[in-house]
Protein: Fumarylacetoacetate hydrolase domain containing 2A
Organism: Otolemur garnettii
Amino acid sequence: MLVSVRRRLLTALLQVQKWPFQSSRDMRLVQFQAPHLVGPHLGLELGNSEGVINLNAFDPTLPKTMTQFLEQGETTLSVARRALAAQLPVLPRSEVTLLAPVTRPDKVVCVGMNYVDHCKEQNVPVPKEPIIFSKFASSIVGPYDEIILPPESQEVDWEVELAVVIGKKGKHIKATDAMTHVAGFTVAHDVSARDWQMRRNGKQWLLGKTFDTFCPLGPALVTKDSVADPHNLKICCRVNGEVVQSSNTNQMVFKTEELIAWVSQFVTLYPGDVILTGTPPGVGVFRKPPVFLKKGDEVQCEIEELGVIVNKVV
C-alpha cells in the first residue's frame, strides 16, 4: 500500500515539474526513513528523482539529524561533498520516505507582508521594517505529509514561501556577513487559519499560524552554493492543479541578508533555525469571494531550483 502511494506521488511530482529541475550534482540534503533502516537518516537527494544516497551508510560517524549535522559545520559538509562525488549506491526514490529537512529547530521565524505584490493585493503600504511572527516547531511536517484541517477553524488558507535554514550560530549579525550564517534554502508552506489570525486571539497571528501540520517543509535543504540567486527564483502554489500564486522571489521587500540582520538583533540564531521569508499574492482570503482549503484538496508549493512539496488536505 505504502509503495503504491509513493509511486503515485512520484508520478505526480514528475508531472507537475514545470521549470528546469536541479542538477544531480547539487547538494540537496534530506532527512529520510526507509523500511530496512531504524529511525531517521541523513541523505543526499539526487536531482530528477534519481534517488537518495544514505550519508550515514557512507560515514557511520555522521549524526542522524539535520540540526546536529549543521552544528558541526564544515566538518560534516565536507563529508557530504565527498559522498556526492563518489559513485555510491542509491536508494530508489520509491523506497524512501522524505521527512522535513529540518525537524525540531530551536525556532521558526516568519515574515509578514514581505512581497511587494502581496502588499498591493491587500492595498496596504510596503513595510518599512520587517514584520516578524513565529510558528511553533511542532507545526513542521514533511514535504508529502497531510495537512490536517483543525475543527477549530473554517478558514484555512495556503501560502507558498522560500525558507532559509541557518547553518551557523550568531547574534547581532551584520547584513554583509549574513550569508555566512546560512546553510541553504527549502520550500515552505505557511498554512494559515485566517479566522484565528485576523479576528480571534486579539488579532495576534501566532495561533492561526501554528496548528499541527501547518508548516510542511522540503523536499530538501539545498545548500546556498547550489542556488544561483535565492532572490531571483520563480515561486508558485497550485491547489488541485490550478495555479493560485505565481511570482518571483525578486519581489521580496527584505532579502535574506536584511532579515537575518534584523532578527538577530533580538534573538540568537542557531543551526537548524528556519526563517520563512513571506508569501506572494494569490492567497485565498483576499479572493472575491474568499476561498479556503477543504478536505480532499491537494496543495503543491514549488520554487525554482529547490523543488516541489505536495500535501493533501484531510
